[in-house]
């Protein structure tokens, strides 16, 4: 008898509690969702002692905590994946930056060619080739006239195909092979990439 | 009485907003947002005490704290989301307001999932 009394008291107090909470609720679209949750809760409170009679007492508080923990763990996992992705991107950028600095150092200090820009394209998909260099584009600056070998006077090269200038990356640039070959050979030896994937371009001095 | 203060703030803000509407309509929005915030903050302390008493009541009831704390959390989420949505709607940003309401709904559902799962478990266990 005491058990039934306890049950009724619990149901009544939950209903009173929920009536009070309903007064507090704002008049919004959320109201119906809250009502769903409250309905579930009342069902749980009513059914719990029935379950206790049929079966052994099941610790529902623990189960709810367990479910909450599981959901939180999933959320944290999603967060972690996101952070992991951002981290990977950072690592690739850092790697590219270091590679660029190293190459710049090799070309500028060891070989003595002034570099305007250096673009590196690497394999970013995970796999065995991850981090391998796809291609390197080196943009050299034109050297001082005093360093002009054999005293040859200025040669202006202007490539015109189909009536328009086709020099890349901008119209002021020309391509020289002898410097390019040295750089290509050095980079391809050091980083073991094929010479075809290294593009060396000499930019004319901008006046 | 507190209600006089709140009504006075509300009426003053409304008059100011109407006065400014012809000259600088954008200030009307600022006034309504600030008035809403002030009223909300004034009521917040009272609401807090009510919720505290509810919490004490919940402690006396002979069921697990988890259920009632979930209900209280849901009420708080509903309040905060509703307030944010109303501020956005006052500023004429109905789209952002509906996004806030959507976020509130998602969070309420996240809170409800543990109850739903345990109820499901209970019912499935009861079926022989």
TrEMBL record, chain A:
It comes from the Bacteria. Keywords: Membrane, Transmembrane, Transmembrane helix. InterPro entries: Spore_III_AF. The keyword Transmembrane applies. The chain crosses the membrane at residues 6-26, 33-54. This is Stage III sporulation protein AF. The gene is spoIIIAF.
TrEMBL record, chain B:
The chain crosses the membrane at residues 6-22, 29-47, 67-85, 106-127. Keywords: Membrane, Transmembrane, Transmembrane helix. InterPro entries: Spore_III_AC/AD, Spore_III_AD. The keyword S-adenosyl-L-methionine does not apply. The keyword NADP does not apply. It holds the Pfam family SpoIIIAC. This is Stage III sporulation protein AD. The gene is spoIIIAD.
């Amino acid at each position: 008898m005491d058990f039934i009394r306890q049950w009724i008291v619990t149901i009544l107090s939950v209903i009173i509690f929920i009536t009070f909470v309903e007064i507090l609720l704002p008049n919004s679209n959320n109201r119906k969702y809250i009502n769903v949750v409250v309905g579930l809760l009342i069902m749980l409170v009513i059914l719990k002692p029935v379950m206790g009679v049929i079966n052994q007492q099941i610790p529902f508080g623990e189960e709810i905590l367990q479910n909450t923990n599981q959901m939180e763990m999933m959320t944290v996992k999603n967060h972690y994946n996101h952070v992991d992705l951002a981290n990977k991107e950072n690592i690739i950028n850092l790697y590219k930056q270091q590679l660029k600095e190293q190459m710049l150092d090799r070309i500028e200090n060891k070989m003595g060619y002034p570099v305007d820009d250096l673009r590196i394209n690497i394999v970013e998909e995970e796999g065995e080739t991850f981090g391998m260099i796809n291609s390197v584009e080196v943009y050299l600056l034109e050297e001082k006239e005093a360093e002009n070998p054999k005293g040859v006077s200025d040669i202006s090269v202007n490539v015109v195909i189909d009536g328009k200038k086709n020099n890349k990356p901008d119209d002021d640039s020309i391509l020289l092979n002898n410097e390019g070959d040295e750089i290509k050979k050095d980079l391809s030896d050091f980083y073991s990439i094929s010479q075809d994937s290294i593009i060396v371009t000499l930019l004319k001095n901008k006046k | 009485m507190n209600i006089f203060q709140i009504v006075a703030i509300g009426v003053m803000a409304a008059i100011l907003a109407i006065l400014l509407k012809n000259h600088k309509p954008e200030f009307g929005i600022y006034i309504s947002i600030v008035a809403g915030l002030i009223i909300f903050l004034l009521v917040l302390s009272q609401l807090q005490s009510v919720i505290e008493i509810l919490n004490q009541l919940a402690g006396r009831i002979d069921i697990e704290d988890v259920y009632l704390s979930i209900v209280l959390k849901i009420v708080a989420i509903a309040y905060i989301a509703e307030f944010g949505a109303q501020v956005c709607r006052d500023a004429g940003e109905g789209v952002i307001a509906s996004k806030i309401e959507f976020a509130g709904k998602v969070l309420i559902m996240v809170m409800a999932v543990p109850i739903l799962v345990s109820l499901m478990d209970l019912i499935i266990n009861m079926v022989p």
